[in-house]
């Protein structure tokens, strides 16, 4: 039986290289040859450093990587839509398929014991090949690249869902706290949806500079003490109609609420941490709509892929570092440092 290189995350900020059999697709499954598999902040927070998760975030010692994109190498019996050679993006959670959340297109919210996420409870994309369900695969349209597709698989999908929840349009000025990969995605897609001004808060100078260099923000602040004044200056003292926190930091979340305009909308997509704030002053009296948003739906992910083509946008511009699978340890160390843009493991595309 042919074998393949793969990576697992045993915890203690370490990477384990293993040799595994190449899997064989079963009914309704496809075997994907990986082309790109990026690293998510959740991988770092809940798996790489130590296995903190439970429930949906419980790591089961599987092949890492929940942001995969690749080409169909083989199809199992019962596959009706995909063919060998098709380029696909993978929605990284497979639910039971029959609960309310699955029927709504949000397997992320499935609570069935059968729910399994790539890189968490079933093998993910940090391997030469990966098994996926046909129902979880979306066609990767031209001219999007495999790296574009990997970033849509979680980070850009998460950003898009949050923006849809906030109903961002040309009526709005957008505030983004945290300009890591998801924050960069939020700024890019927010502009595409019509936000007239994007104001960002990012204390890491390199990440703030990347956002400016890519033209994703109109104003970026690295000193949190100066943030309120910067928002006031950009909005004539009114605050932003929409604020999205992508940081997971309590102080940044409070700053997002504080600088949301009266009757505005605030969405929190950054995982982890906690928040304490003056509910009457910052939420009730300002009549703000506060949302939590967790990843995307299958239909919204498909919609995003189509929109990226229409908008002529490439998520891969937010990738600052690429590594081969053999250098996965270096890739994770860099991602863990929190100084770079998106970090991605890539394989050579076929000639």
Q: Could you describe the 3D structure shown?
A:
The structure is a single chain. This protein has 351 residues and is an alpha/beta fold. It has ten helices and 17 strands. It has helices spanning 41-48, 100-103, 146-166, 181-192, 205-213, 227-234, 250-258, 279-284, 298-311, 328-337, and strands spanning 3-11, 14-21, 29-38, 68-75, 87-90, 93-94, 116-117, 129-133, 137-139, 173-177, 197-201, 219-221, 240-245, 260-268, 289-292, 319-323, 342-346. Strands 3, 4, 5, 8, 9, 16 and 17 form a seven-stranded mixed β-sheet that branches. A six-stranded parallel β-sheet has the order 12-11-10-13-14-15, with helices on both faces. The protein is globular, with a radius of gyration of 20 Å.
Structural class determined from secondary elements: alpha/beta
Detail the poorly predicted runs.
none
Query: Number of helix segments?
Result: 10
Order of helices and strands: EEEHEEEHEEEHEHEHEHEHEHEHEHE
- The proportion of residues in beta strands is 25-35%
Task: Provide a brief overview of the structure.
Helix content is 29%, strand content 26%. The protein is of the alpha/beta class. It starts with a strand and ends in a 5-residue tail after the last strand.
Give the tags.
6-stranded parallel sheet; single chain; globular; alpha/beta; 7-stranded mixed sheet; about 350 residues; 10 helices
């Amino acid at each position: 039986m042919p074998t393949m290189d793969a990576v697992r995350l045993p915890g203690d900020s370490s990477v384990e290289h293993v040799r595994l059999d190449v899997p064989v697709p079963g009914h309704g499954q496809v075997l994907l040859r990986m082309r790109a598999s990026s690293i998510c902040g959740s991988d770092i927070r809940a798996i790489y450093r130590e296995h903190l998760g439970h429930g949906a975030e419980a790591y089961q010692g599987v092949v890492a990587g929940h942001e995969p994109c690749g080409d169909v190498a083989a199809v199992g019996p019962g596959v009706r839509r995909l063919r060998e050679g098709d380029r696909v993006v993978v929605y990284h959670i497979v639910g039971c398929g029959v609960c309310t959340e699955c029927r709504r297109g949000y397997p992320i919210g499935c609570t069935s014991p059968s729910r399994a996420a790539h890189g968490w409870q079933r093998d993910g994309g940090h391997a030469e090949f990966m098994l996926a369900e046909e129902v979880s695969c979306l066609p990767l349209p031209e001219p999007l690249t495999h790296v574009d597709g990997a970033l849509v698989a979680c980070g850009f999908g998460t950003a898009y869902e949050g923006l849809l929840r906030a109903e961002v349009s040309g009526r709005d000025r957008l505030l983004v706290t945290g300009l890591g990969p998801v924050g960069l995605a939020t700024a890019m897609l927010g502009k595409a949806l019509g936000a007239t001004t994007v104001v960002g808060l990012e204390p890491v100078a390199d990440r703030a500079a990347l956002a400016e260099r890519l033209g994703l923000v109109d104003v970026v602040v690295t000193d949190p003490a100066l943030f309120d004044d910067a928002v006031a200056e950009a909005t004539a003292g009114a605050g932003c109609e929409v604020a999205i926190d992508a940081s997971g930091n309590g102080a940044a979340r409070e700053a997002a609420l504080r600088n949301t305009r009266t009757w505005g909308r605030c969405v929190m997509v950054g995982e982890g941490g906690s928040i304490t704030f003056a509910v009457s002053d910052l939420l009730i009296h300002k009549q703000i709509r506060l949302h939590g948003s967790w990843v995307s739906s299958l239909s919204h992910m498909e919609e995003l892929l189509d929109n990226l083509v229409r908008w002529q946008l490439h998520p891969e511009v937010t990738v600052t570092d690429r590594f081969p699978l053999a250098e996965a340890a270096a890739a994770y160390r860099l991602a863990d440092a929190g100084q770079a843009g998106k970090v991605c493991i890539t394989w050579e595309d076929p000639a």
